[in-house]
Write a structure and sequence with these properties.
This protein has 16 helices and 21 strands. With about 550 residues, the chain is α/β, with parallel strands linked by helices. The strands form 7 sheets. Strands 11, 12, 14, 15 and 16 form a 5-stranded antiparallel sheet that branches. It has a 4-stranded mixed sheet with strand order 7-8-9-10. It is elongated, with a radius of gyration of 28 Å. The termini are far apart.
């Protein structure tokens, strides 16, 4: 079912009947539907108009179309017996990093998670919640039941049906006080607002599910009242919301990435190494959460449950390794650095792509940025950056981007390539799909240095070596080595090819002293001349001329 009051009614009816609900994204491909239904073993499907007719042919299940099924329903709930520790819902992951897994929430875990959420936000019965998330998002539960359990109002907006252009008017008309959404959607919304647009009734802007950036707070301050608080929440379907960061109209975040904040009462958050031991203050490790209110595990995945969750000695208390990386700041706030499987080592240095993305996303004229690692032809990990410019523009050359990043990031964290896209690919739950980011095309980047073709056989042959090692074509005689994606490792590879071709050994300092094809050609010629007789030198040059190995 899609985003509808009937879906919420279905949640409540299933709970009253003693069952567990499993929301399925109507926009997901049919194979995803069938995979979930097979994994759960569900016998009953409550379906809205969005459901594909093909699924109705499966007679092994009861097919219950809504809202027609609500006609004539008895007002009294059925008499069922159960336990607070029975499953209330099963939320399936997107499967973008492997096989989708069903995450169980019990009545016990979810009620405690919601209680902590409402207390942290100081929600009252006078509040009016927005429901902008689709109902198959785990975070939608905080909006739906946060409102219903506190006696507040819930205002639903179907973005897919109404469109982003209608949201501002709806938000003003609803007089919503608590606005919750994803950072990427919030950016798209605020970018389209005319100057001076203001939402005076909102007292909490809550973002989560993705990294939150300094620019998000800047957009918040332009359109929301000074009395409103900006909230960054960090959580997962397994652990609930386990960290909150509050920023008022005057506070400045300590860095480009907004901190995830501190744990609510009932949750304990630590940062640990591979062995599960706490890392020293300020060092990066995996985020670990300890609570009595975590999910009990994964549906029909006991081996995965045992791997991720472990008991902590106290009754009902568990510890979960979240798979997210982070570190504690000097003020005690947690900084979230993205998924563990997205970190990469470049030249022996551990790089967190999220920090590179945040630095790029702050640049004027850049709407979104993503950074991913891939293996080059030599088997080394390199970073590629993908940018979306305002109105499809390309506001920065590669030369300028490298210069800007070089002022705030270590050399190993500067991407090898920069590519502009019309939009970033996303999974069906709206997150950036890094697996679908295109491999760099290998074209010469936009440089501040005008292209000049190689001159003579030595430069031509060197340009070919550079092109093969750097995976870039064409290569100009004055193109800076680093701006083409060069690194120390790639410099070693180039000099090894030089030694193989000309029989000379050059130190790295030669390449970095004049990091161009023209400069290296001069060094090669000087070194060869210094160690060869006139006859040998003429013979070598004649061989190169005859080989025609360069293409100016």
């Amino acid at each position: 079912m899609g985003q509808s009051p009937f879906t919420i009614a279905a949640f409540l009816g299933i709970a009253k009947a003693g069952g567990a609900w499993v929301p399925i994204d109507p926009a997901a491909p049919p194979e995803a539907w069938e995979s979930v239904l097979q994994d759960t073993g569900a016998r009953v499907v409550l379906a809205g108009k969005e459901a594909p007719g093909a699924l109705q042919q499966d007679l092994a299940r009861w097919w219950v179309p809504l809202p027609e099924a609500l006609d004539g329903v008895a007002p009294d709930p059925p008499e069922v017996s159960g336990s607070a520790h029975l499953p209330m819902s099963i939320m399936y992951s997107s499967g973008s990093t492997g096989r989708p897994k069903g995450i169980i929430q019990t009545h016990w875990s979810r009620l405690h998670q919601l209680d902590a959420h409402l207390r942290t936000l100081e929600v009252t019965e006078t509040d009016r919640f927005t429901l902008l998330h689709q109902l198959h998002f785990a975070t939608s539960s905080s909006d739906v039941f946060g409102a219903l359990l506190s006696g507040a109002e819930l205002h639903m907006f179907d973005l897919l049906a109404e469109g982003m252009e209608s949201l501002a008017g709806w938000l003003l008309a609803s007089r919503a006080t608590i606005y919750a959404w994803t950072p990427s959607a919030f950016r798209a919304f605020t970018r389209g607002l005319p100057p001076g647009t203001h939402f005076p009734d909102v007292r909490r802007v809550i973002l989560g599910s993705e990294p939150v950036l300094r620019s998000d707070i800047e957009a918040f301050r332009r359109h929301f009242p000074a009395s409103c608080q900006f909230v960054n929440r960090l959580g997962s379907a397994e652990a609930g919301n386990y960290a909150y960061y509050f920023a008022g109209s005057e506070e400045e975040p300590p860095d480009d990435i907004v901190p995830a904040g501190r744990a609510p009462v009932g949750w304990d958050v630590s940062v640990v190494d591979e062995r599960g031991s706490p890392v020293p203050d300020g060092e990066t490790g995996e985020i670990q959460v300890r609570s009595a209110y975590l999910s009990p595990g994964y549906w029909r995945r006991p081996e995965l449950t045992e791997e991720v969750f472990r008991p902590d000695g106290e009754r009902d208390v568990q510890v979960i390794r979240t798979g997210d990386m982070g570190r504690f700041l000097p003020d005690g706030n947690l900084l979230h650095l993205g998924r563990k499987n997205f970190q990469v080592k470049i030249g022996g240095v551990t790089i967190h792509p999220l920090e590179v993305e945040a630095a790029l996303a702050q640049l004027p004229g850049i709407v979104e940025a993503a950074v991913a690692a891939y293996l080059d032809r030599g088997g080394s990990s390199v970073l590629a950056a993908y940018l979306v410019g305002e109105a499809g523009g390309r506001p920065y050359t590669t030369s300028r981007l490298r210069s800007i990043l070089g002022e705030k990031l270590p050399p190993a964290a500067i991407p090898t390539s920069f590519q502009y896209l019309e939009s970033l690919p996303r999974t069906h739950v709206g997150k950036v799909d890094r697996l679908e980011l295109p491999r760099p095309a290998g074209e010469r980047p936009e440089l501040d240095t005008p292209f000049a073709p190689p001159e003579g056989p030595t430069e031509g042959h060197l340009a070919r070596i550079w092109s093969e090692v750097l995976e870039v074509s064409p290569v100009g005689r004055h193109d800076p080595f680093l701006e083409l994606g060069g690194s120390s490792l790639r410099a070693v590879q180039i000099l090894a090819r030089v030694s193989e071709q000309w029989g000379v050994t050059l130190p790295l300092t030669v390449l970095f002293a004049d990091p161009t094809v023209a400069g290296l050609a001069q060094a090669v010629a000087s070194t060869v001349a210094a160690g060869a007789s006139e006859a040998e030198l003429l013979s070598l040059l004649n061989e190169l001329d005859a080989a025609e190995v360069w293409d100016p």
